[in-house]
Design a protein that fits this description.
Length: 424
Amino acid sequence: MLKIAAIGLGSRTTEYLTIMRLLRKKEVEITALCDIAPQALKDIGERFNVPESRRFPNAEALFAQGKIADGLIIGTQDATHVEIAKPAIELGYDILMEKPISGDYAQCAALAEQAKAKDVRIVVCHVLRYHSYYGKIKELIRSGEIGRLVTINHTENIGYFHFAHSYVRGDWKIEAESTPALLAKCCHDIDLIQWFFDEKPALSVSSIGSLEYFRRENAPAGATEFCLGGCAAKKSCPYDAEYHYITSPLYKSTFVKFKKRRLTGKAKANKADVYEVLRDGPFGRCVFLNDNDVCDNQTVSIDFGDGQTALHTMTAFSQKCCRKSHFMGTKGELLCNHNDLVLNVFGKGRRSLGLKLALPGHGNGDVGLVLRFLNVLSGKAEDTRDVTFIEQTLPSHAIIAAAEISRKRNGERIHMDDFYASGY
Ligand SMILES: NC(=O)c1ccc[n+]([C@@H]2O[C@H](COP(=O)([O-])OP(=O)(O)OC[C@H]3O[C@@H](n4cnc5c(N)ncnc54)[C@H](O)[C@@H]3O)[C@@H](O)[C@H]2O)c1
């Protein structure tokens, strides 16, 4: 039986524990849980039948028990991953760590070194690598069907609704308190790009981007600090909090249902609870009169050498949350538009592969990640070349760190050799 402990019992960890219980019930025992929020500890403890004696109010209390599981999930918010991981590594825990590792590349590199020295494996939750849609793309590129891959043009359409929720009102709105939006949202995308180029190190990176729209000067006439505070533009504003969280048809969708707990802190919140927090809480704030500072649009151009390049775009300005990409090879191309995957081999015509990227929700990527992590723990990971171990993840974190330096220098091209030599 594999023993699993978890720190940070929010939406991600709950998803992973649920997958373990549904698909590996006979092989996995959830032995210890930890969260600083007493309600989350109680709810998740009860849901997964973990006795009170194995529920811990902070990481120190859990670590004081020594090593009491084979694997540890770290599912807390971005800024805490490294500090929690350090003592866990010392105790010898193999770790499933939420992305990003850290917004500070030096910390990422030091953590990888520490894990190597202690012979501990850290798998970073780049769930999209485990999604069958991206798995198929990787397989097609590897097979040489489109010849030699020359360029990737990839766009992360965050969705206006999702951007407002997470990056204007939510946990990732202030860079100093979390991470740049490029790291929080697009470390998956840059990881994928790196992976499609066979984890080849990038030579140089440049980036431009800004917080273009969600700013004070763009507030409509008569806007108030809270949408429910008598805003004159309420009816016409697509970002009205009451519309987003209560009256929109999306309210019934999984996305909003799922966010109700995050909004109210209650496991079973009703409409009145949501109204209460929207009146003067962060999710009721006007998206223009707020204290957010992360970019709402950014592009990154990456030179992998030997003529291989990638262009990544992150944007808040889309109706849907969806990723689209175009892979251009010497003998063909792949067009990935979220609802389809089309292969054009030059001279041979167009073929739809009938695959959908069923996002949001990561589709089957979450399941693939969890099963792979369990296989790593039990020694069953047959082919580990595509597992997102921390070593595989460092280059994409470095590209993003370099992109942020470039953005702050108006797009100056940053040579990765200089980036590494400068101590980041
Ligand atoms: N892999 C993905 O695709 C993906 C998707 C979304 C979020 N994430 C990442 O997952 C992480 C968690 O996100 P979430 O949406 O589940 O967050 P969440 O806010 O739902 O849950 C975080 C939990 O951690 C607890 N916590 C915070 N600090 C703690 C500490 N020091 N010790 C113990 N518990 C602590 C909180 O009380 C909360 O219950 C973040 O780093 C986020 O960026 C990854």
